[in-house]
Amino acid sequence: MDIEIRTLEPGDRDRLAAVDGGNGWNADPVLWALYLADHAIGRRLVVIAWEGLRPLGYGNLHWTPGYEPFRAAGIPEINNLGVDVTVRNRGVCTAIIGHFEDRAREAGRAVMGIGVGLYPDYGPAQRLYTKLGYRPDGRGIAYAERTLAPMETVRLDDDLVLWMTKPL
User: Fold this and answer.
1) pTM of the predicted model, to two decimals?
2) Rounded CA gap, 107 and 105, in Å?
3) Helix or strand run (H / E) with residue 131
4) How far apart are alpha carbons 126 and 75 in whole angstroms?
């Protein structure tokens, strides 16, 4: 598979919307309008992995993440990674993460951050991030980017995450 990583351009959302990428694939026009605006002002780097004219996956590198420990330490966060279900386990996500790590190094960052969900749908991502060298940041789990206290009850959904870091 020949994967090319390119930054988001106007009109790419329509190509993403044409793909039935399976669980986790998000082509919401409101979300992509936000991504395009943030990308244009440098708040986040948004990339799409392509094979020719076919989008295979996408992701964001947020330079000032909402998770306070990352923001305070100047750790950029990889978020909203999506890979078309028909090409999963073929290196697409690894290529996107590698691209983000290279951009962070070029920007003088020494650590990269990523959050991963805690229910079974995230099992492949949990294994991949560990394989790529990401380790828990030691603050426990968080809900909606806020570290949870002992005995606190929250909903098990996409906002319940384990934050991980990797030295670059």
Assistant:
1) 0.94
2) 5
3) helix 123-131
4) 20
